[in-house]
Amino acid sequence: MTPQILCLGEILFDLLADQSDQNLNQVTSWTSYPGGAPANVATALVKLGTPSAFIGCVGEDKAGNALVQLLQTTEVNTAGIQRHRSAPTRQVYVTRSGNGERHFAGFGETPTTDFADTRLVSNDLPKILWSQAEFLVMGTLGLAYPETRQAMYRASQLATKYQVKIVIDVNWRPVFWENVDEAPPLILDFLQSADTIKCSDDEAQWLFKTEDPTAIQQQLKTVRGVLVTAGEKGCQYCIGTHQGQVDSFKVTSIDTTGAGDGFLAGFLHQYREQGEAIFQNAEIARKAVIYASAVGALITTKPGAIASQPTTEEVQAFLESGRYSAL
Questions:
Q1: What is the tally of structural domains in the chain?
Q2: Per-residue pLDDT for 32 more than 90?
Q3: What is the CATH number for 153?
């Protein structure tokens, strides 16, 4: 199927600590799970019924082969994947607290700048994907690396040319940046072309000095939708002129890895289905955020960012179970 949503950025392996509430040097074993925010969004979208493509760079190694095979098995379009001959596919160590909250603990002995995802080539982006898509989804981690940064700006230019809406997840991860002081101006400049952005409450406070989505919307030129997630505290949103707060679902959380990516995929799935009505109708906007919250909540009930993603039938059954009084 023709991909309607393009997800550009990193795909990697999360090495999730088997022992919770332990520091990096105290963990005795790890379990490997496929991840990377844009890849998580791509696979979640397909499971929800929206065709997607992943665009990024992985190594010509065993890990890269496994990740490409996973995307193909999940029926994510892989025409935009580049392979690097010498740079390895990224892996990141993830420790977790007793309630499933995660902490990115580094990349082992490999410098952050040496992985394949830092080497996405702008001239090799397949324009045909943009000519047929409705949305382009990107994070901001690639902005830390000059070559991939150039490719991300090229992707934005193609989106403008082909009238593809740009959706950006701030996804602030200091461990990916060699110089964290460079991040705020680069990210703020990059956000100027976005139609919709998503960030956590901590990211909002760090980048915009406010958690109020309306105030964030006013700081940016083109942004029509702002989603500010806060884990157990739910989500604040400003979609067009419609503002609101949606409480989180009460579930038994095992691993929060990928929950925010699932939330974004759920929202995009609704955005694509509802079209411009999501900005014109307050109830449609609210229900889209509730749906997104349900996807994110379900992902936390199982380990792994991709393995835990629900189907559209599972989300609907969860919503119909009466666990959210606003529906």
A1: 1
A2: no
A3: 3.40.1190.20
